[in-house]
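Give me C-alpha cells for this 120-residue protein.
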Amino acid sequence: MTVFERTKELAKKRKLSLREVNDKAKLGTNSIYKWKSSKPSFEALSAVAKVLNTTTDYLNGLTNDPNPKNTNSKNLTWQDLGMSYGGEVPDDFKTLVDSLAEGYFKAHPEAIDPKYRKDN
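Here you go.
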C-alpha cells in the first residue's frame, strides 16, 4: 500500500476527507493527491501524521500499527528525530540523546519553562 493509500484509508477511518487533512496540515492545494505519483517531503508527511494522530512510520508502510505508542514509551523511531531511516532507535542511542537533552535543558531552562525567559 502506498503513502497516498494509507493516508486516504486512515483519513476515512478518522472521518476526515483528504481535503480536510490537507488543509489542517497546512499543505498546498491538493498536495496529498500529488502523493499518488511522487513521494511527500518529510515535513509534509509529518504534518499529515500529526493531523491523523499516527506516525510517519505507519504512513510510509514501515509499521502496520496506525496508532502511535504511548508518549511515555521508549519506542523512539529515527523519524521522530527527523531522520529518514526506518525502525526504532537503539537503546544506547536513546541513552545518549537523553543525556544530551538533560544537559541542554539544565543549561537552558527557558526552553522548557517560560518563567525563566530573560524577556519576562
